[in-house]
Design goal:
Number of strands: 10
Shape: globular
CATH class of the largest domain: Alpha Beta
Largest sheet: 5 strands, parallel
Radius of gyration: 20 Å
Strand order of the largest sheet: 2-1-3-4-5
Number of helices: 16
Distance between the termini: 57 Å
CATH superfamily of the largest domain: Glucose-6-phosphate isomerase like protein, domain 1
Helix content: 40-55%
Order of helices and strands: HHHHEHEHHEHEHEHHHEHEHEHEEH
CATH topology of the largest domain: Rossmann fold
CATH architecture of the largest domain: 3-Layer(aba) Sandwich
């Protein structure tokens, strides 16, 4: 990432800019880590997956929870079993509801630092509520509380991401994509991970090299609201994209996310002449019909240039509103989410800078913290 963006990022955005631009390199590192531990991973998962009624719970807080929202639909389809995305913040407040079904459970925890109060508490509550619970922990900090609790536990397997992914910026960027990728490679039984990761990394590199000017222009165009839309796994991506811009602009830009079909049922009310809509187009031939229907509807009703479609297909080859990431034809949506989210990360960074914020620390008054503070974990009442 060079030129004007690199210069601008020096105004309090060095870490965020670096952590966005390093993602193609760290994805290749993640692939190497998973490949090197493939036998150990298989030894941990094989007996669990032999349970036909094994439930998989994907959990984390904030951005880490959205990794689960992206993965759950794709893993349900790939694994042919129940996979639920449940945030740690929901588990901690309502453990008996979310663990009411006492069946063998694999809890997959995503955490950048593992020091958020809910991270360890959620795993402990799972063990209290369930007769049999195993843990797959994906984290970026080898000194975090979650890592330290589970690294030596017989019922746990911990996968530590590359050191560079322990993002120092306020917003999770490379930590998010690296943990999501690792989980897909581990649980999605990807046949040729080198080939897939190479395609994703090259697409992200091209995006970083070619779309910087377009994104900077959008950030200086006076938009006050941004809507992100996506179906299936890409709805989870829309959720993460919405948070990224909200965080990095300290809440000054109103953001929203929804599925294309859900958007018509009331949320479309948010649209005005200062709204930018970003539509993530599914690579699935059936699903993307719905995405394209709404896209056409938005383009008829919104100002020219206010609708952007991020796609890996040639559905809009001659349409400048389509930002097509080449080399990703046939890639599943869960994997498309990784290069697609780079658009949202860059939008967040550029809007933050354009509005005069410092992206690495958009809340110098500490109203919102990089690692959540102020949460009291209350003991779970004794089970009846």
């Amino acid at each position: 990432m060079g030129g004007h963006l690199e210069q601008s990022a020096r105004h309090g955005g060095e870490a965020t800019a670096r952590e966005i631009s390093q993602q193609p390199a760290v994805w290749r590192e993640v692939d190497n880590i998973v490949t090197s531990r493939r036998d150990d991973i298989a030894a941990f998962l094989r007996p669990l997956l032999e349970h036909p009624d094994l439930r998989v719970v994907l959990t984390g807080a904030g951005t880490s929870a959205f990794a689960g929202e992206i993965l759950a639909p794709a893993l349900s389809r790939r694994m042919g079993r129940r996979v639920d995305a449940v945030a740690t913040t929901d588990i901690v407040s309502n453990p008996e509801e979310y663990f009411a079904d006492d069946r063998p459970t694999l809890m997959v925890s995503f955490a950048r630092s593992g020091n958020s109060p809910e991270s360890v508490a959620a795993t402990e509550f799972a063990e209290q509520c369930l007769s049999e619970c195993h843990h797959l922990v994906l984290t970026c900090d080898g000194s975090g509380r979650l890592y330290e609790k589970h690294a030596q536990s017989a019922g746990s397997f911990v996968l530590l991401m590359p050191e560079a992914t322990n993002d120092q910026g306020f917003a999770m960027t490379s930590s998010f994509t690296s943990m999501t990728l690792a989980a897909w490679l581990v649980l999605g039984t990807v046949a040729d991970s080198d080939e897939l990761v190479g395609r994703l990394a090259r697409a992200a590199e091209r995006l970083l090299a070619t779309r910087q000017g377009d994104i900077e222009r959008l950030a200086s165009s006076g938009y006050e609201r941004i809507v992100y839309l996506g179906s299936g796994p890409l709805k989870g991506l829309a959720h993460e994209s919405s948070l990224k811009l909200l965080e990095l602009t300290a809440g000054e830009i109103v953001t929203y996310f929804e599925s294309p079909l859900g958007f018509r049922h009331g949320p479309k009310s948010i649209l005005d002449d200062r709204t930018l809509a970003v539509c993530y187009i599914s690579g699935d031939p059936y699903t993307h019909k719905y995405d394209l229907d709404l896209l056409a509807e938005l383009k008829r009703s919104m100002r020219p240039g206010s609708v952007i479609a991020i796609a890996a297909t040639d559905a809009g080859a001659n349409d400048p509103s389509f930002w097509i990431l080449e080399g990703l034809q046939g890639v599943e949506d869960v994997a498309l989410a990784l290069p697609f989210v780079v658009v949202a990360q860059l939008l967040g960074l550029c809007f933050s800078l354009a509005l005069g914020y410092t992206p690495d620390d958009p809340f110098p008054d500490q109203k919102v913290n990089r690692v959540v503070q102020g949460v009291s974990i209350h003991p779970l009442p004794k089970m009846s």
